[in-house]
Amino acid sequence: MTQQQQQEQAPVLLLVDDAPSIHRLLAVKLKDEGLEFLAAFSGTEAIDLAQSQQPSLILLDMNMPEMSGLETLRRLKADRKTMEIPVIILSGNTDSDEKVRAFEAGAMDYVTKPFDVYELRARIQSALRIHKLMHLLEKRAQIDGLTGLWNRHYFNERLAAELNAAQRSSAALSLIMCDLDHFKKLNDGFGHPAGDAVLQTFAGVLQQELRTYDIPCRYGGEEFAIILPGTSADEAVTVADRIRKALDVKTFRKYPEMHVTGSFGCADQPVTGQTDAAGWIEAADRTLYSAKQGGRNRVHVFDAASATGVPPMALVA
Amino acid sequence: MSSDRDREKPIVSSFRNDPDMVPIIEEFVVELSERIASMRRTFESGQVEGLQRLAHQLKGAGSGYGYEPITQAAAKLESAIKVSTGDLESVRGQFEELIELCQRAKV
User: Which of B59, B64, B71 sits opposite A25 (nearest CB)?
Assistant: First the structure.
C-alpha cells in the first residue's frame, strides 16, 4: 500500500433502516470492510445526515414507515448536495417492478433481504470502486457528457484562473448563474428524455448567443454557469437577457406543448466585493435566487448596496 | 409434520460460534419476546398492515442472525397476508407457526 492510500480516509457508509436489529447485524458483518458507519432510522434522518456528512455510500431500506425508501431515494437524487452519492437499495421484496422503480429513481444497485453477507460486501466494494473511478474520470474530463459544455470541474479551475488574471489587471469579470425554471415539473410531465432534450437545447442556445471568449459550463442538474472575461455587469445583463429571450421562444419538435424558461443572476466580481471564487459564486447564486423569487424567466443583477439581486436598470429603462 | 418433542426443541443460531455475533444474537433473542408480544397484539386487533410489516421485518432479520426457519416462516406469513384480503383469521396457521418458532429461538 502506498503512502497516499494509507492516508486516505476510510469511506463512510450511511445505513438507513428503521430496524435497529439490522443496524447491529450489519455493523458486525461489515466490520472488516474498512468502513466508517453512520446510522439513520428514518428517511428524514437519512437526508439530513447525507447532506451534512456527505457519506461515500448509502445503504437504504425500501420498506420504512412514514417516508418510504423510494421517496427518500428520490429526494436524495433531487438535491444537488446529495445526488452524486451512490445508493444501494436493501429490500425484502424481490418483485422486479420495485427494482425497476428504484433504478429509475437513481439507485446504483439493489440487494434483497435477507441478504447474503458475502454478496453484500462485494456489492458495497464494487459500488465504492465505481464511484471512485467515476469521480476520477469526472475530474480528468473537462466536458459534460450530456450537453457538451464545460463541466463543473473545468468551471472551478477556469474561474480561479480568470479571477486571478482579472485581479492582476483590475479588469471587469462577470459571472452568470442560470437555472431552468420548473425543470422538475418538465421532467415529471414530459419524461426524462424530454428533460435531457431541454438541457441539450439550452446548451445550443448558449453556444449560439454567447461570444467566442465566454465560457459556458454545466454547473450541475439544470443549473449553468457562464464566465464572461472582461465583461461588466451591464454587458453581462445584456448577454443574459439575449439568452433568456432566445430560450423563451424555443419550440421542441417532439414536445410541441413544452415551453421552457430560465432565470439568470449576473454578478460582476469587483462589484460584489468578493475576492475569492466561493464568495463570488455565492453572490451570483443569491442574485439568481432573487430572479426566481421575482417571478422567474428574468435577469437580475447583483446590487452592492443591498448585497442581493435586483432588476437591472438597463432593462427597466 | 413435527412431533411435540420437536416443538419443544430450541432452535439455535447458526452463527452461535462466531464470538462477534454472540452479543447481538443475544440481544436479538431478547427482542424476539417483545416482538412476539407485539405480533400477538397486532393480530388480535386485526391490524393487517402492522402484522405484515412485522412479518416483513422478521423475514429480513431472521436468517441474518442465523435463524433461517424464522425467515422462512415469516416469508410464508407475509405472503399469506398479501393474498388474505384483510381477514387475519385465514392466516392464523402461518401466524402461530411463526410465533412458535420465535419462542423456541435460543442463542
Answer: B64
Pairing state of beta strands A262-268 and A299-303?
parallel
The reply to whether A157 belongs to the active site is no
Peptide bond into A65 cis (omega under 30): no
Burial category of B12 from C-beta neighbours within 10 Å (exposed 0-12, middle 13-18, buried 19 and up): middle
Closest approach of A11 to chain B, Cα-based (Å)? 22
A295 Cα distance to chain centroid: 23
Model ipTM value? 0.82
| pLDDT exceeds cutoff 50 at A215 | yes
CB pairs under 8 A between A and B: 45
B53 and A63 within 8 Å at the Cβ level: the answer is yes
Q: Cβ–Cβ of A114/B62 closer than 8 Å?
A: yes
Distance CA B82, CA B37 (A): 22
Span A92-120, pLDDT tens digits? 877 788 889 999 899 999 998 888 889 99
pLDDT digit string, tens, across residues A44-100: 999 999 999 999 999 999 988 889 999 999 999 988 889 989 999 998 877 788 889
- If pLDDT is split at 50, 70 and 90, which confidence band does B73 have? very high
3-state secondary structure of A151: coil
Residue with cell 391490524: B47
Beta-carbon separation of B64 and A22 below 8 A: yes
User: What is the CB-side half-sphere exposure of residue A105 using CA atoms within 13 A?
Assistant: 22
Residue B61: which of A22, A28, A63 has the nearest Cβ?
Answer: A22
Q: Is A4 on the interface with B (CB under 8 A)?
A: no
Q: Which of B11, B17, B22, B10 is nearest to B71 (CA)?
A: B11
List the single residue in B20, B31, B56 with the smallest CB-CB distance to A28.
B20
Q: Report pLDDT digits (tens) over A127-151.
A: 999 888 887 877 778 888 889 999 9
Pairwise CA distance, residues A40 & A266, whole Å: 40
